[in-house]
Write a sequence for this structure.
DNA sequence: TGTTGACCTCAAGTTTGGTTGAGGTTTTAT
DNA sequence: ATAAAACCTCAACCAAACTTGAGGTCAACA
């Protein structure tokens, strides 16, 4: 069942079930990814999917990207420029992960800014559209100046 | 059109369109929130929605919670214990925002951990299910030990 | 008194990321 | 040889958070 090369690395192509098991995603998900163009498969004479072992890295990359919050469509775009017929290299991975790291950084920054605003507003609660930094998410520009605001019961 | 009280605060009830404009959410969204139990409305004799001005703070709170990533269902739950018939007080807001701040903190932490793992793996790319911290998101436990991993072309 | 704009309800559509199931074929194991 | 396990396609369904549209009513203004 498991054919080994001289060097001891298993080199047989993988069935969809094997890929599912080894990559930790469901078979249905692999079908789905294929439909979305994220992965590709060859077929054997019985029309069953057969994958090169490099699929495992590709799927792994997809999963990591998803954890950073990148939507599948964007992941697909990023992977689209890379060939399906050879494994992703370390270089490919570096480029991708560096990009994703940057967007992850931005997400973290945005959330951190939000947290700070929340801190500044916990004791206030005015939530004024005009004056409260929480309601004015001018996310990038530092048009801040939180500080306590006076709270008029309904003057939102 | 705008009736003022002696003290200069407008105290008229608001129509759904007015709430939409002043709170920055669409009319359809207000209908939707009502259906989900997040907000409530009185009706005038013509069956049109009429809101007390306190609705504006309530909607504001919902929006802020959403920005922190809290799903509507959870926001609904949190707001459920608070009466619809009086404005949210600073105390209400403090309690809510403190809770949400904590979950926001967790989100930030999780993302930061991910970023660090990504940093450790950018030059590696093994993405091994067994060995790569990026693939083993045992998020809470510090079962770390990233460091460089040797990269065998297909040994994912 | 129109007529226009705001409002009403209810149903259906949208997007993202999949899962579930029916009905049928292929592979694998005995 | 046969039965079970794995695979195939295609369609439908799920949840979240809304939006859109149809068909009809109400209100505000000239």
């Amino acid at each position: 069942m498991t054919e080994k090369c001289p060097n001891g690395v298993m080199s047989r192509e993988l069935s969809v079930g094997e890929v599912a098991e080894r990559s930790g995603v469901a078979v249905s998900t692999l079908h789905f990814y294929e439909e979305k163009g994220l992965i590709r498969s060859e077929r054997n004479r019985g029309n069953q999917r057969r994958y090169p072992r490099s699929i495992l890295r590709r799927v792994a990359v997809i999963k990591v990207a998803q954890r950073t919050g990148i939507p599948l469509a964007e992941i697909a775009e990023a992977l689209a420029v890379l060939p399906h017929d050879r494994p992703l290299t370390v270089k490919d991975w570096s480029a991708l992960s560096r990009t994703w790291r940057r967007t992850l950084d931005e997400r973290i920054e945005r959330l951190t800014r939000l947290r700070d605003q929340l801190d500044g507003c916990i004791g206030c609660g005015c939530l004024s559209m005009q004056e409260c930094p929480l309601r004015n998410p001018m996310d990038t520009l530092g048009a801040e100046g939180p500080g306590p605001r006076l709270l008029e019961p309904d003057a939102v």
Observations:
- Chain B is about 45% helix and 5% strand.
- The first strand of chain B starts at residue 14 and ends at 15.
- The longest helix of chain B spans residues 90-121.
